[in-house]
Amino acid sequence: MRNLTLAIGVVAMLAAGAGWAATHETKSEPLAHARTPEQALARAVTTARLKAHLSALEAIARRDGGTRAVGTRGYTQSVSYVMKQLRKVGYRPRKNMFTFEFFRETRPTVFDRVSPGLKHYSNGPDFITMRYSGGGNVTAQVVPVDLSSTSGCESADFARFPAGSIALMRRGGCPFSQKAGIAESHAAAGALIANDGLPGHTAPLSATIFGPGVQIPVLVVSSQVEDELARRVRP
After folding, report:
1. Which fold has domain 5-15+104-233?
2. Boundaries of every domain in the chain
3. Roughly how many angstroms between the first and final C-alpha of the chain, as a whole number?
4. What percent of the chain is predicted at pLDDT more than 70?
5. pLDDT in tens, 116-130
6. What are the b/e assignments for 81-110, b being 16+ CB within 10 Å?
7. Residue 170: how many CB atoms within 10 A of its CB?
8. CA dihedral in degrees (35, 39, 41, 47; nearest 10)?
9. Which of 146, 171, 148 is closest to 160 using CA atoms?
């Protein structure tokens, strides 16, 4: 087997505190004079009005990088919009603050093949950092793990996996989180999970690690990147 090493830099930050506090509308108290009979309220909820609100929220997302996710400016503006609409009809909304774990990359992720030959991979077309990935810098040999439709879903797939290597797996058979967790439990230094290469499934896709977090860097890569890396490590 030819050695293939990659330098992967992923930094994840979990922030909890007022700086990353979210808002949750727990109570909206109507004014005494604004009480509306249930039938009148039902008549006020129309398709046109629902679409208008959805369009307004979509416009907020477009102005703020295509997202309204918690912790972003789009989220803050969405909360302001909802509160404004409630006030218009006589409610007095109150915001409750709470802390939560928040993931973001604190510096651009670097994904390079350093041997044989240097090649730089591009964030987006070639790879995407999995949300709630672990952080760190890794340079290690890439080892394919049963590149089938259930790649990396069972401990048996790692029977001959060299500790400290980077596990190259393929989408399918089980959640991405399970693949990453099993790889880490078998002493992988990092994990690459490729799209499966079926029609419409070639580009890297955005994914999230759910459940107990992993400490190793985890990237989702394109099927083309998987093909190239797997081809280079074959005898």
Report:
1. Glucose Oxidase; domain 1 (3.50.30)
2. 5-15+104-233, 19-98
3. 5
4. 83
5. 888 999 999 999 999
6. bbbeebeeeebebeeeeeeeebbebeeebe
7. 25
8. 180
9. 146
